[in-house]
Amino acid sequence: MACSLKISSWKLLIVFLLASNSQHDDLYYADAKPQVPCFFIFGDSIADNGNNNNLNTTIKINYLPYGIDFPEGATGRFTNGRTPMDFLAEFMGFDHYIPPFATANGSDILEGVNYASGGAGIRNESGQFGTLHKYGARKVAVYGQDMPRCTLFLKSICAFNTASCMAYMTNAITLFNDGLKPMVAGLSHSLPDANFIYINYTGIMTSIFNSQGFNKNINFPCCQVTGTGNIFPLNCNRHGYVCRNRSQYAFFDAVHPTEAVYELQTRRTYRAESPTDSYPFDIEHLAKL
Questions:
Q1: Transmembrane ranges (predicted)?
Q2: Residues paired with 251 in a beta bridge
């Protein structure tokens, strides 16, 4: 299979798996044999695990306190520990995390590559589901856009006209997600030898923030962030202060959730807890097809 695909997306995470007959009955890999032989990832900073480190861009965070709870330290992950894709690799039985495209080589690509890049945007060339199918993708999970109420940065830029600003962005994202879900269903219909599923990222994250005890620390990032001029602070200050009770915070910096939130979110994307978490079924079911 060709492994040179590259697709960018902004808050639109695309995961595709290659078919396998192996199955797992437990959330935590019971026999260390992956449910699928290959796992490829396309997305933005939610999934990026180091692709931006050597790029000429300000959107890279290969410094502490990022990675403070990750065994290898600051690897380029936009959080304090594991990302949703790291957890998903664990849940599907991989004994390693999917390597970033920037450093993957040789046999690394045989079990998948992570093409996600922080700051990537939705462009005309991004929506190439047909291309993915052409190169062998038969099991694809597409994540919807998250609502602005779930991001400290967007709350801040709306501060002077919060109601109308948030309503405008919420309506735009709702329109996007409402169109994405039937599009995903249409792909499964038009490509009958493949299965596409939609992940209700907004619904899952909203539920987590409302019910998992993060309300007290949902309006403040765990790390110290400082803006420059009129630029709102997004990322943690290099080697700056970081909270000790990170598992109790919703956000690590002004944009990205903590590892604790990502784990809860990935549990529900892998094995749905609500009928609205995914459509028509969850990633666990997709992997077993």
A1: none
A2: 257
pTM of the model: 0.87
At residue 48 the predicted structure's pLDDT band, cuts being 50, 70 and 90, is very high
The Cα diameter of the chain in Å comes to 55
> What is the C-alpha to C-alpha distance for residues 159 and 149, in angstroms, rounded to an integer?
12
pLDDT for 151 beyond 70: no
Q: What is the distance of C-alpha 61 from the center of its chain?
A: 16
| CA angle (280 as vertex; 278, 285 as ends), nearest 5 | 80
CB-based contact 199:143 (threshold 8 Å): yes
At 77 the three-state DSSP class reads strand
Element (H, E) at 149: none
Beta-sheet pairing, 39-42 with 139-143: unpaired
Is it the case that residue 104 has pLDDT exceeding 90? yes
Q: How far apart are CA 186 and CA 81, in angstroms?
A: 36
Region 45-55: mean pLDDT is 95
- Full set of structural domains in the chain with CATH: 14-288 (3.40.50)
Query: In terms of Cα–Cα distance, which of 234, 214, 182, 230 is closest to 44?
Result: 234
Contacts of 161 (CB under 8 A, 6+ apart): none
Q: In this structure, what is the dihedral angle of CA atoms 277, 278, 279, 283, given to the nearest 10 degrees? A: -150
* Helices vs. strands in the chain: H and E counts, helices first: 7, 5
Beta bridge partners of 196: 140
Quick one: which H or E segment has residue 16? strand 14-17
Run of H or E residues at 158 = none
Phi and psi for 206 in degrees, rounded to 5?
Answer: -60, -45
Q: What is the pLDDT of residue 25?
A: 42
